[in-house]
Amino acid sequence: MGKSLSSLVFFLAGSLAIAQAPPATDLESELLAILDTPVTVAGKKAQKISEAPAIISVITAEDLRNQGVTSVAEALSLLPGINLTETSFGYTSVSIRGNLQAHYNNKWLFMLNDHPMFEPVTGDSSFSGVPLSQIKRIEVLRGPGSAMYGTNAFTGVVKIITFDGQEGDALSASAKGGSFGTYGAEGRYAVNAGKLRLSFGATAEKSDGYPFKVNLDENGRSGEIPYKNDLYNALLSMTYGDWKLNLGGFKNKKSKFGLIPTLVSTGDRTTDGYYLDSGYSWKLSEKADVSVYGYYDSLKKDDLMGWYPPAWAQQQASVGGPENATYQGTKYGFTVQSGYQFTQDWRLTAGLFGEFQKTGPYEWRKPDGTFSAFRTSAWLGDFDSNTKGGYLQMDGRLGQYFAVVSGVRYTQSSVYGSSLSPSVGLVYNATPKLTFKALYGTGSRDPNFFELYVATANVVNGNAALKPEKVKSYELGMDYMMGSNSLRLNAFSADTNDLISRSLLAPAGVNGNTRPTPQYGNIQGQKLSGIEGEIKGSFFAGERHFVNISFLQGTEKKDTSDVIFIPKMLGNLGVNLTLAKGLTLSPYLQYVGAKKGTLTNGTPVEVSAYTLANLNLEYRFSAMWVALTGKNLFNKVYANPEYVRRLIPETPGGPGRSVYFQIGFRN
Questions:
Q1: β-bridge partners, 93
Q2: Per residue in 316-334, is it b (16+ CB within 10 Å) or e — as a string?
Q3: 592: exposed, middle or buried (C-beta count within 10 Å: 0-12, 13-18, 19+)?
Q4: Omega before residue 120 within 30° of 0, cis
Q5: Labelling 316: which of 106, 305, 369, 465 has CA 20 to 30 A away?
């Protein structure tokens, strides 16, 4: 890591040195304002980024527009330490700081405003329910956040803040078309009428899908399928005085080529969901306040599994038929929070919470509705669980320069008993432009229903004796304003225990197995560490830029071997240039380093590094605008490691060159 640190310091120092004549203080004031932006993802109250006890990045609605991003996941990949991987099972996996996912995004927590949006069956989080037009900003906390947010806030928290009408009246709409038969529209309407404020956004988009090329599946087949992704969503965010309401729904149809991966189990997944939440706040006195908040969500998935193993053996014999898998999960919860301002500098926040999860049968049936002769259903009954508890957080200032925060969360689980998640942070504001942070945090992730109870014969078995995953994290950070540029440096070390993987074998005769079958179990854990650096700012009038670089490394506790398939280096470089009045050009590059690992038989595997070049050109005239967006302009063919089963060297990466055109208006 010493060589990496030297490279990072040299790289960032060199970038700053390029700035010969920074523009006037307008941009400097703007960057200082960003450091003073109130964010809520670090705790249970709004805090300035410069004082928040966490490593936080913010993506604004303007950032989304300038870079022409097409999804929230793509926006996140522009931040330090975040890497995207396309999985064979039709998911875009978001990895934060080298912590690889399995099939699902369940090691970080997605919050939509104050609503935890993971689904209970697999713990997966996706951004399908959020119209891009409704996003005011995205706050990303890198590192565990369980002290304030509970399970799944294991490696980080992604919190999306939506427009709610307080920003003023607005009306916008746009139409889009482009590569792979993509076309769609989105829009937003907002009104601010005194106490009543609301914002409504919606998206409708269809795509034939880019060609998902499979060189070799686990049955020795090769082929190509269209990786389509159709999406419909809508979200209403509304406030009336101190009362707030969010109501949304979505439908997403996405292709996959099988859980295994096996081409004969190719099919579409349709996900339908809706969610709502509401809260109210009271100001009891000058020093005391109380708020209540409740949420509910429901999600249903319908998967065409095709000839899912062991059914594919029937396909080879020209008997039987493909199968369809369905399940539905619901979740609801509440929080009651109070705050007391002891002095101007010290505040105590306390809360009580409860969350209740339920899933119905996870059935796999043939098209005629009957069960296969093979026992492929995950389970045929209902499961439920709940967690209850409370949290405390004390924050304040120690004199002029130091801010401190300490929090702890107590959780009583119906499955796992009681646990504590503490955190503490110290912030040193050396000057208005220079801040240092020292942080300690803990996190946990409870096993989901699938990991506990799946019982698919000869494929995978759950384990009701699983323990929650745990992590301890130590971080040092620095934020520094230098003229028209802001520099951020972070170093972290994370120690994980009881990680969940398919590390055991269930013997023949268990759950219908006719042979030893993979089973979920807890492994010892990993040690991860890294360094992140980021520069944002301007070198001259009409130019904005961002550049970041991350170095990651990790070892397995069981044998000190390298954690498999970590990209040891990640980087992003982007520029926004004003070419003429209303005309802007925004090119950016994304670099993902090589990923090394082994197959289950011990064969070494290396998936090559790649660099993607992207560009967004936008022209605004009056209330109208047009944009031309290009992704992967050099048509880079790249791959991702097949790191779940590790039986084939790689899975396909993302799309080749794609171009999209948009036209719209906004007032």
A1: 85
A2: eeeebbbbbbbbbbbbbbb
A3: buried
A4: no
A5: 369
Nearest CA to 491 among 553, 572, 431?
Answer: 553
Ramachandran bin of 358, using left for φ above 0, alpha for ψ from -120 to 50, beta for the remaining angles: beta
Q: Name every residue whose Cβ is closer than 8 Å to that of residue 467 and which is 6 or more positions away in sequence.
A: 416, 447, 498, 522
CB 658 within 8 A of CB 71: no
The region that residue 525 occupies, defined by phi over 0 for left and psi between -120 and 50 for alpha, beta otherwise, is left
Per the model's pLDDT, the better-predicted residue between 192 and 510 turns out to be 192
Residue 444 pLDDT greater than 50, yes or no: yes
* Contact in structure between 438 and 406 (CB atoms under 8 Å): no
Distance CA 340, CA 336 (A): 14
Q: Are 77 and 567 in contact (CB under 8 A)?
A: no
Nearest to 420 by CA among 404, 446, 443: 443
Helix (H, G, I), strand (E, B) or coil at 284: coil
Q: How many CB atoms lie within 10 A of CB 345?
A: 12
3-state per-residue secondary structure call for 477-489 = EEEEEECCEEEEE
> Do 246 and 235 touch, CB atoms closer than 8 A?
yes
CATH code for 2-458+476-482+491-666? 2.40.170.20
Q: What is the pLDDT of residues 323-337, one digit of tens each?
A: 888 999 999 999 999
pLDDT tens digits, 211-268: 888 888 887 888 888 888 899 999 999 999 999 999 999 999 998 877 677 788 888 8
Confidence of residue 20 (pLDDT cuts 50, 70, 90): very low
Q: 90: closest CA among 248, 271, 218?
A: 271
